[in-house]
Amino acid sequence: MSREPVTDRKGLTEEQFLQGYDAGMYERPSVTVDMLIFTVMEREQDNYRKLPEKSLQLLLIQRGEHPFLGQWALPGGFVSVDESLEDAARRELYSETNIDNVYMEQLFTWGEVGRDPRMRVISSSYMALVDRTALHVQAGDDAADADWFEVGYEVLESSRKELAGGYVQEERIRLTLHKEEIALTGVVSRTETVQGHVRRVQREIAENNGFAFDHLKMIQYAIERLRGKVEYTDIIFNLMPPLFTLSELQRVYEIILGRELLAPAFRRKIADSVAETAEYTKDAGHRPSKLYRYRVDRDSN
Amino acid sequence: MSREPVTDRKGLTEEQFLQGYDAGMYERPSVTVDMLIFTVMEREQDNYRKLPEKSLQLLLIQRGEHPFLGQWALPGGFVSVDESLEDAARRELYSETNIDNVYMEQLFTWGEVGRDPRMRVISSSYMALVDRTALHVQAGDDAADADWFEVGYEVLESSRKELAGGYVQEERIRLTLHKEEIALTGVVSRTETVQGHVRRVQREIAENNGFAFDHLKMIQYAIERLRGKVEYTDIIFNLMPPLFTLSELQRVYEIILGRELLAPAFRRKIADSVAETAEYTKDAGHRPSKLYRYRVDRDSN
DNA sequence: TCAATAGTGTCTATTAGACAGTATACC
DNA sequence: GGTATACTGTCTAATAGACACTATTGA
């Protein structure tokens, strides 16, 4: 249970060792967090009957300083020595969106040597999912501008080469982030190498129009993860308002998964993640829809 | 595509800015990697007919220096400024096991402020899965001793409290790592809080007999992840030798998942992940078993 | 009335769970 | 022969996919 008062080769106890410890011996990388803040927004339709179209949106900021001045980046910043990674992520999230207490998850820590031209920077990416009805975005000090961009994700091609004892599968994924007149695009090449038992995934930026750092890779990774998790967890409800129709929920699934779903199967599948309310939509040019809420109290996975 | 020669408020181009950039302004955390190296070993049986029992094993090193001198820790070390996180992980893996080119995956980056008594250290944990037949473990310089420990994972209790608009679910998990006369034990309390839409998982070390740092949490997290991934990926084959029987494969699934499986369903499920060979086991006190290999060339997920 | 969406019923195909039963080596 | 494991057949239950059908509103 408790540690014994052992002494090391120099006869020091742990307490003595720590008092004499010089933390400044080695050169260190800097650590940052980068935030992938997603939400879902609606676009009004010209036809009064039609439901508003939904789209997945990601928050980007235009860099106001070197490096990558003028380019678009994920919100983020340095982790100070006296705050945890998660606290730093929450701080960044709050400073950009003014909201707290939302779903947030660490995705991946990016540690390539040359990823920041200023110096060695290791960055943990966090994904946050927020309900747009709770949002008031503002630009922080280091950002010239912060805005929501509609996310497009398209697999351009998928090729596969057989090797001795394995294969290499390459996918080229086009990412499109746009917002009114601005359209940022890029292509990430995702390579999966399988050799014997060893499987390895690598991402390279093949084309880049307007994204700072390696943020394009982070965006691709986050969407891949979001797609995966949506299938076997309840995280999608973090993107929904408190009350929603099953059709709305289905649309959100569809835009995240990038494919259409059949309503009956969908309804069966999510049936016990949601609970009916007594309320209905109204003023639609068609049959009103029952409103549902997320059923927290269900016996989950 | 290419970045324009924009200048910032001070009239500097990016190149000029980078030349004048002073990277030494802020105090920085140190960054380490910690390795969770798993393998599967067999224990011979007294009864010649019985199959050898298998167990999941984890590599630990006994610390030869302060802090936590004498306690057991995950192999790991500092990331130098000129190597990537992944390179550091591979270096550590190689220095402990003398093997390279095995399955390795980043799990999580641990960034609590007080997790290392020496100074602020942020640590990325990586999981490696190795086939024991390929192994020759050796202790590195910073390790007094490196050894494989049999992993036990048991959910002691699971309690659930309902809250307004959510719940708190707490699981107490007993971890037992043992190796001959040494038995390290600990209890990790895993708390899942759901409030409205927000779900949050926290881990605390509730009991600790012999583990350094927060490594008990890392071990619990890794096993949780390994269990999850085994169900929807092929990573398990990284723990298998090149040729294996379906019963052996089933046993490995069972020890990782912590529950028994039915053979017919199991065989159907993994049928197209494996390929038959012409070989059979022999000298067993019972019917010989066909040997299989991992089928790399299958159209995977 | 009709466009557009909401919602249900049901057939079929696929998959998972359970368990009985047969097969085969080696001491 | 008997023990321990290898392997298959088949019934049943649960789940997913497909599609047809009915229901309901506001302009």
Rg of chain A, alpha carbons: 23 Å
Strand residues, percent of chain A = 35-45%
Briefly note the structural class of the backbone of chain A.
Answer: alpha+beta
Distance between the termini of chain A: 33 Å
According to DSSP, the number of beta strands of chain A is 12
Lay out the secondary structure.
The structure is a homodimer of 301-residue chains.
Chain A: H1 14-19, E1 30-43, E2 53-63, E3 72-73, E4 76-78, H2 85-97, E5 103-110, E6 121-129, E7 143-163, E8 166-179, E9 182-195, E10 198-209, H3 215-232, H4 246-257, H5 263-270, E11 274-280, E12 290-294
Parallel strand pairs in A: 1-6
Antiparallel strand pairs in A: 1-2, 1-4, 2-3, 2-7, 5-6, 7-8, 8-9, 9-10, 11-12
Chain A binds a DNA duplex (27 and 27 nucleotides) through residues 47-51, 245-247, 262-265, 267-269, 282-290.
How would you concisely characterize the structure shown here?
Chain A is of the alpha+beta class. Chain A contains five helices and twelve strands. The mean pLDDT of chain A is 91.
Description:
Two copies of one chain form a homodimer. Chain A starts with 13 loop residues before the first helix and ends in a 7-residue tail after the last strand. Chain A is built from five helices and twelve strands. With 301 residues, the first copy, chain A, is α+β, with helices and mostly antiparallel strands. The first copy, chain A, is globular. In chain A, a hairpin with a 2-residue loop joins strand 7 and strand 8. In chain A, the strands form two sheets. In chain A, strands 1, 2, 3, 4, 5, 6, 7, 8, 9 and 10 form a ten-stranded mixed sheet that branches. In chain A, strands 11-12 form a two-stranded antiparallel ribbon. The model of chain A has no long low-confidence stretch (mean pLDDT 91). Chains A and B meet through helix 1, helix 2, strand 5 and strand 10 of A and helix 1, helix 2, strand 5 and strand 10 of B.
